[in-house]
Design brief:
With about 475 residues, this protein is mostly helical. It contains 20 helices and no strands. Helix 5 packs parallel to helix 7 (about 160-175) and helix 6 (about 130-155) packs across helix 8 (about 175-180).
Length: about 475
């Protein structure tokens, strides 16, 4: 894995992000706010189930991965995911019997969770084996099929469970590029030692990842209880659009640089180089992403979402941007310390801090400020979780920081922000976009982030290469 692979992941994830944003735009126009809000609440519930019961196995697979044992470890992962699924099913049945969920919602959530497991599980195995093209295809296909299947579901019926099931089915089908490749020797019968290694590594993560999943969705779950599904629709649509632009870039960096660093020996100096480069790239993305959303967020959200969805954008956007920036920096850099420090202690402490702050903030702020309170509670939770990792890493330096480049990028983004604000006041959004594009491309070229020099060279007209 190298800069060229990182640029391929970047392009594919940007395309997938665009498709996901288009899906939000289409769904908010086809569904009523109550239906779309119900879908978001069901999605949040499904993600909490996935994060608690399944995600720890995926993290453990990556943590114990050894190329010479790849097929057996993939077989062990598949077997353990099946066991986890069998353990979860009775809880959905009980929730239905106790009327916590209606039958339709339970089925929709079950299909959605199955989609998470198949899609993310396939991508995890493919990422560990450096199957760049198959993972890229799966990500793009996921975006296309979620849009197509979800649109068809809403055209047929105004039903949140139907939309959940459609999105889950789309993820299952989208995993085929990886699964079809893996069927040729990609899985082998695991040994007991393979199963035990995954369980032993991932066991301490169960609480951390389950708590993290709940903390990330506390704002929506509490908002639905207090203000109803329509409020969740308005808040969730804005939140999801903002999050897409940051998260997909963080995923590209994790899939490229951090996979490369994980494959290296701890004593290899190139490992530190790869980690420092990952931080520099992610920090630069966060800075320019924050600028873009603060300067252009209201215009972009107003153009994308259905009328009425952005009425409270001023109360929501700053906190959403801050929280999402902290989330990405934690999840896709400092949170990766579990693979390099050999301990889940930081993740557990950070997740507990996140849940405590986010839950307290939601219960205190949402009754008074509505969706503005939900956004602020989300941001406070992410700041708390990031602070735990920063404090824990201040002595060990497991995840190195290139302070010089971080300072340069921060100063350059501050200048860019000042120029962009003047451009917004004098001309409008188009000049701001031009300023941000020129400034970010210049910095990327200077440090060759995502191997942009080679990427631009490939895009040059063939006549110039002759």
């Amino acid at each position: 894995m190298n800069d060229r692979h990182a640029s391929l992941y970047l392009v594919s994830r940007l395309a997938a992000a665009v498709l996901n944003i288009v899906s939000v735009a289409v769904f908010t126009r086809l569904a009523t706010p109550d239906v779309y809000g119900g879908y978001l609440v069901g999605f949040a519930t499904g993600f909490v189930v996935f994060g608690t019961a399944f995600q720890w196995l995926l993290h453990a697979h990556f943590g114990v991965y050894q190329p010479q044992q790849a097929a057996r470890l993939a077989g062990a992962l598949a077997a353990l995911l099946g066991v986890a699924g069998a353990a979860v099913a009775p809880f959905l049945v009980i929730a239905t019997i106790l009327s916590w969920l209606d039958v339709g919602a339970a089925i929709g959530i079950a299909v959605l969770v199955a989609g998470f497991v198949v899609q993310i599980g396939a991508v995890e195995v493919g990422r560990a084996r450096l199957m760049v093209h198959e993972v890229t295809a799966a990500g793009l296909l996921r975006g296309v099929l979620m849009l197509v299947f979800g649109t068809l579901a809403l055209l047929i019926t105004q039903s949140a469970p139907a939309l959940l099931a459609a999105v889950g089915l789309a993820q299952i089908v989208a995993a085929l590029p990886v699964l079809l490749t893996l069927r040729r020797g990609g899985f082998a019968r695991p040994t007991r030692a393979d199963l035990e290694s995954i369980v032993r590594y991932g066991g301490p993560l169960i609480i951390a990842l389950g708590v993290t999943a709940l903390a990330l969705n506390t704002d929506r779950l509490v908002l639905e209880r207090i203000a109803g599904a329509a409020a969740v629709a308005h808040y969730g649509a804005m939140s999801d659009v903002v999050r897409q632009g940051f998260v997909v870039l963080g995923e590209a960096i994790a899939a490229a640089y951090l996979s490369q660093a994980k494959a290296m020996s701890p004593t290899n100096p190139s490992r530190t180089v790869a980690l420092r480069r990952a931080f520099t790239t992610l920090w630069t993305i966060i800075l320019f992403g924050t600028l873009g959303w603060l300067l252009l967020g209201e215009t972009l959200l107003g153009a994308l979402l259905a009328p009425g969805y952005v009425d409270e954008v001023h109360a929501v956007l700053p906190a959403l941007v801050l929280g999402t920036a902290c989330l990405v920096l934690r999840a896709y850099y400092f949170g990766q310390a579990i693979y390099f420090a050999g301990s889940a202690r930081r993740e557990v402490l950070a997740s507990l801090a996140m849940l405590g702050v986010a839950a307290a903030g939601a219960l205190l702020l949402i009754p008074a400020w509505g969706i503005g309170g939900a956004a602020l509670s989300f941001a406070l939770g992410q700041v708390a979780a990031l602070a735990v990792f920063l404090i824990a890493d201040r002595h060990t330096r497991v995840m190195p920081i290139d302070w010089r480049k971080a300072a340069e990028a921060t100063a350059w983004s501050a200048v860019t922000g000042a120029v962009g604000l003047m451009a917004l006041l004098l001309a409008g959004w188009w000049l701001v976009l031009l300023v941000l594009a020129i400034s970010s491309i210049w910095l990327a070229l200077r440090w060759n982030l995502f191997d942009i020099r080679a990427l631009l060279g490939q895009m040059a007209p063939s006549s110039r290469r002759q």
